[in-house]
UniProtKB/TrEMBL annotation:
Belongs to the universal stress protein A family. Signal peptide: none annotated. Pfam families: Usp (PF00582). This is Universal stress protein. It comes from Halobacterium bonnevillei. It comes from the Archaea. The lineage of its organism: Archaea, Methanobacteriati, Methanobacteriota, Stenosarchaea group, Halobacteria. Residues 1-139 form the UspA domain. Coiled coil: none annotated. InterPro entries: Rossmann-like_a/b/a_fold, Universal_stress_UspA, UspA.
Length: 139
């Protein structure tokens, strides 16, 4: 029996569908929504990275709260409550690391722009290949 489900979520439609799937298919499970924010990159250059890092965490938390508020609205439609967590860094790596301690991960596919997918790779595919627990992909 699945008792703990991790649902990585951004502001994409596929992430919302993954949360809806998790809520409907695992009605007795504790659902945790994880939002991952990438940090300033060395590719931006040292000066840009330092300038961005001063307000980065505050801006990231504000954006995460928008995602979490939307997730809570979805959960309310199912008469459920969810837990939320914010992580920083590489999305696939953070999801895989957070997956330990959960019974399964439910993740949407094809989020992000085409350039994001080409540059960073498909997060869902990386999670699927590396995750220590079963992964359900929703499309």
């Amino acid at each position: 029996m699945v008792s703990r489900v991790l649902v990585p979520m951004d502001d994409s439609e596929m992430a919302r569908e993954a949360l809806e799937y998790a809520l409907s298919e695992h009605p007795a499970a504790e659902i945790t929504v994880l939002h991952v924010v990438g940090g300033p990159s060395p590719m931006m250059g040292a000066a840009a990275s330092v300038a961005l890092s001063e307000e980065f965490e505050e801006n990231a938390r504000e954006h995460a709260n928008v995602v979490f508020d939307r997730a809570r609205e979805i959960a309310e439609d199912y008469d459920r409550e969810i837990d939320t967590e914010l992580a920083f860094g590489n999305a696939a790596r953070a999801i895989v690391e957070h997956a330990e301690g959960f019974d399964t991960v439910v993740i949407g596919t094809h989020s992000g722009s085409l350039s994001d997918r080409l540059f960073t790779g498909n997060v869902a595919e990386k999670v699927f290949r590396r995750c220590p627990v079963p992964v359900t992909t929703v499309r």
